[in-house]
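Recap from last week: sequence in, structure out.
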Amino acid sequence: MLKENPNLTICKAPSFDIRQEILVTEVPKLGMEAALKAIKEWGQPISKITHLIFCTSSGIDMPSADHKLAKLIGLKHSVQRFMIYNQGCFGGASALRLVKDLAENNANILIGSAIFADGAAALVVGSNPIASINERPLFQIVSASQTFIPESDDMLIGKVREMGIEYYMSRDLPKYIANNIVQCMAEAFTPFGITEWENLFYVVHPGGAAILKGVEEKLGLNKEKLKASWHVLSEYGNMRSPTVVFVLNEMRKMSMLEGKATTGAGLEWGVLFGFGQGLTVETVVLRSIATNTAP
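Predicted structure tokens:
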């Protein structure tokens, strides 16, 4: 492929057309792999899925990736689809926020898929799990909110150009996130009377080592608290939108392997953070599930 398309390897060389041809074909296929894996673990028929949320920053085409994925995995023609484009690193958390609202208002099953580069993640989300058919949740989404940090528009910028997508990241990005993380925590947890940050489990988007260190320092956390985020950063790097879902999955896997009482490292309450351009912060309050009831 690279021999046939040498511009893919040359900085600033025009290669948008070939990149798009690759992405519009491969992104739905990558989404299919993640979706089928999530559905298999869920253990229920595909026909029960009523909504599809597809989130990606890769590939722009019509019909879009959500339409193609619905056909690839055999969803009903009446499935309600939502396409989320170019939300960057907070896209996965944005999808969870939308999923929560849909599930609460429709009481139906949903699947969300978030894709970028070589990373894909999928979730099946619903309300009122049915024990008689062995539906076993992993986490409960208690609340979800979005905010942007004032005077931070130039901290992280992405531009679509002939060469693909160009990114500009300020050295001050980790500092801006760290300096605002306590306020985000307080706004999310004050309604529940929670003020001790050490008593929570953490699912934090690993946008880089400096970001994770800044969160640890501002919240007074030891490195074990962000172990799942550090692991994903080390093994996969920053995959943008799906990365935080990788961390969520790592949290539940680590909890079970280590014999913890809940999917949240033995703790009941936790938080999921997504960070991205804007600077936008997605904050999702979670409650864990007892590991002896999780799949």
